[in-house]
Amino acid sequence: MDGIGGEAASGAGPLSQWQHDVSRLYQYYLDKITPHAVYRWIGTLFIVAIYALRVFYVQGFYIVSYGLGIYILNLLIGFLSPLVDPEMEVSDGPLLPTKGSDEFRPFIRRLPEFKFWYSFTKAFCIAFVMTFFSIFDVPVFWPILLCYWIVLFVLTMRRQISHMIKYKYLPFSFGKQKHGGKKPASSVITSDD
């Protein structure tokens, strides 16, 4: 007898080890691309273009695209929302300033950029795979779905923008001042001549 479980446990060992190795390799590459946001988003735009071409080519899967659009809208709301919503939660942690005299606190997203990118990309990959199965190609009149999604997007964004104005926060760092801080002593040039 070679331990608890006998032959059944040793048969699951190589499969479990392979799954663990694949998971570690996947996580390794995710960790490697984390700091390269621009290249990650360029790759994602390439995946989006492939998906759009696939849907255009087969002239179908509009329900899949509509569901994908609703999911992306949900991700966008999480990306644009603060971690602690002043309307919903009372917290002892950092809150958004509501008056001009309030102390500055950095904007912390409910859904960080990397998780937003990862979920966004994964959603398009799953939707792309779904376009190869005819069970997901439900015949619908796509202009109605598109109009409904646009109305939903406008109403949701209007609510989100009014929330941003009410609590005076901007979820993007474009145009904000960046403080350089003090320069290290090694960068000061001295002449010893």
TrEMBL record:
Q: Does the keyword Transmembrane apply?
A: yes
- Pfam families, alphabetically? Rer1
What does the UniProt entry say about where the protein is found? Membrane
Bilayer-crossing regions: 38-57, 63-84, 116-135, 141-158
InterPro entries with a match to the protein in the record: Rer1
Q: How does it sit in the membrane?
A: Multi-pass membrane protein
Q: Does the keyword Transmembrane apply?
A: yes
Superkingdom of origin: Eukaryota
Keywords, in A-Z order: Membrane, Transmembrane, Transmembrane helix
Functional description taken from the UniProt entry: Involved in the retrieval of endoplasmic reticulum membrane proteins from the early Golgi compartment.
Q: Which family does it belong to?
A: Belongs to the RER1 family.
Q: Output this protein's name.
A: Protein RER1
Native source organism of the sequence: Cucumis melo (Muskmelon)
Q: What is the lineage of its organism?
A: Eukaryota, Viridiplantae, Streptophyta, Embryophyta, Tracheophyta
